[in-house]
Amino acid sequence: MTETAKRGRPDIDLLGRPRYRPVPDPSVTLVSPVLQRLYAYWRSKAAVRPPRRADLDPLEIGPDIHNVTLLDVRHEPLRFRWRLLGGELVEAIGRNMTGRRFEDVYAHPILADVMRVFSRAALTGLPVRHVGTARFAERSYLRYESLHCPLFDGAGRVVMLFGGLHFEPLASFE
């Protein structure tokens, strides 16, 4: 345990940098209109059977595709790889992580925080919303809202997460 965690500040790492501290919301109470539309789209696909990757159509998603994320899910051990980051997300984050695995992108202890959030959707097969603040590529802190919904294979196993992110400068919320 770090010295700062012992003093009740688990949001600060050993180097004094604020950590990515997502707050999961399994109720999926979305605020962002773009995430509300992506969630409605996923739910329309889930109305018939558990949705699969093949059920997604970029033309149906329309302009919201710029905020879409797709994550490959591997089991045993549980791992994630960025399959797609929409253009608006790459711009907000300041780098394109498409094709990269979480363990290659995130340093510990951030990796543990990220895994905790995404594992919830991958292991339960339920969508999850999370909110928090983050800093990317020496940019200003951003407040974000994120949605991740499971996509299944023919055997009913989660093999991908579909969703999106919405970023706003932290100053917008003060």
Structure description:
The protein is α+β, with helices and mostly antiparallel strands and 174 residues long. The protein has helices at residues 3-6, 33-46, 58-61, 87-93, 102-105, 110-124, and strands at 23-25, 68-74, 79-85, 128-134, 142-152, 158-169. Strand 2 (68-74) and strand 3 form a beta hairpin. This is PAS domain-containing protein. It comes from Thalassobaculum fulvum. Pfam families: PAS_5.
SSE order and pairing:
Blueprint: H1 3-6, E1 23-25, H2 33-46, H3 58-61, E2 68-74, E3 79-85, H4 87-93, H5 102-105, H6 110-124, E4 128-134, E5 142-152, E6 158-169
Protein name: PAS domain-containing protein
InterPro entries: DUF1457
Pfam families: PAS_5
Précis, in short:
The protein has 174 residues and is α+β, with helices and mostly antiparallel strands. Helices cover 28% and strands 27% of the residues.
Keywords:
single chain, 174 residues, alpha+beta, 27% strand, 6 strands
Average pLDDT number: 81
Q: Give the class from helix and strand content and strand pairing.
A: alpha+beta
* Main beta sheet strand tally, sense and closure: 6 strands, antiparallel
Shape label: globular
So how many helices?
6
Could you give the order of strands across the largest sheet? 1-4-5-6-2-3
Strand content: 25-35%
Helix content: 25-40%
Unreliable segments of 5+ consecutive residues: 1-19
Q: Helix and strand succession?
A: HEHHEEHHHEEE
